[in-house]
Amino acid sequence: MNINSLYGIETEDAADTRPILIVPYMWIGDFVRGHTVVRVLKDRWPNRPVDLLVTSLCAPLVDYMPGVRAGIVWDLPRGRLAVAKQWGLATELRSRGYGTALVLPRTWKAAIAPTLAGIPERVGFFGEARFGLINRMRWGEKALPRFIDKNAALALPAGAPLPGEWPVPQLFVPPEEIARWRQANDLGMGPAVALAPGSVGASKRWTYYPGAARLLVERGLDVWVVGGPGEKALAQEIVAAGRGKVRDLTGSDLRNGILAMAAAGVAISNDSGLMHIAAAIGTPTMGIFGPTSPYLWAPLNGLAATVVQTKAVLPCQPCQRTVCTMNDHRCMRDIDPSYVADVAQRLLVTHTRAR
């Protein structure tokens, strides 16, 4: 066996070409972080193709993930078993001849289709009494400190020590595709700041994006608002604060958000999927954190700036709650928009010079 000198991951049988299926978490940020699992598997088995099960929402991400052969697009409904859809997915998986499936979610439902497809090795952590569905059961998930540790550990041999650092997620967006996207949206070629004001959970949303946008526009910078349909009303508020000089790029196509983050000179984001996308692309990213811990939830890639309130120590922080129930959301309210604008401008200048 050879050992990957950077990460300490042993390369196993190079003659093994059996395809591997990853059943990942389907939230956008979690899906991006799942690319670390792909990279660990490719270090172990360089000649085993790796496919990802993916929802229609996350499907565009697969096109930019090195090392992924294909995405199996299949939308299973939340909250119900959907037996017919599970059988249909199992039929599709069986036709692809997978030798191994890594089932990252701990749910019973996530393991059904790989089992019905007869995939010989089905690896996952204990959860929801999945005996029989998961036949390479792992234990000790709760002892692992971070979400990335829990996921990527499944790509290592059972009982193997975790490496000192994991391979970081990567998204590669071709420059020519970025240029075409800018031209199609009449955005010019100047440096821009992308704002991602949305997130899952109201408590993770910094509410001063309109003020930051106004300050950035006053300094002569291009500003874009990026997000899904749920951020449309907020985007309009930010556009109004920028006196019409802010572009609303929100919409239902995640590819548009990926390209916006790739084209931007700096991204400012709440703890959200778009933060992980920007960081994995390599765009200098400012992550704004309040109720969540940067140690646990920041991108593995690292952030150009981790923004937290510094006015006072809050005993409730981090609470991990989706809605603030203490201290009137001070963990976010005490982050000043002028500070955020100042840091973004410095990063933009530094990044533009480095190009």
TrEMBL record:
EC class (word): transferase
Keyword Transferase in record: yes
GO molecular function: glycosyltransferase activity
Family annotation (InterPro entries): Glyco_trans_9, LPS_LOS_Heptosyltrfase, RfaF
This protein's UniProt keywords: Glycosyltransferase, Transferase
Entry keyword annotation includes Transferase: yes
Entry EC no(s): 2.4.99.24
Catalytic activity: an L-alpha-D-Hep-(1->5)-[alpha-Kdo-(2->4)]-alpha-Kdo-(2->6)-lipid A + ADP-L-glycero-beta-D-manno-heptose = an L-alpha-D-Hep-(1->3)-L-alpha-D-Hep-(1->5)-[alpha-Kdo-(2->4)]-alpha-Kdo-(2->6)-lipid A + ADP + H(+)
Protein name: lipopolysaccharide heptosyltransferase II
Family assignment from sequence similarity: Belongs to the glycosyltransferase 9 family.
Transmembrane segments: none
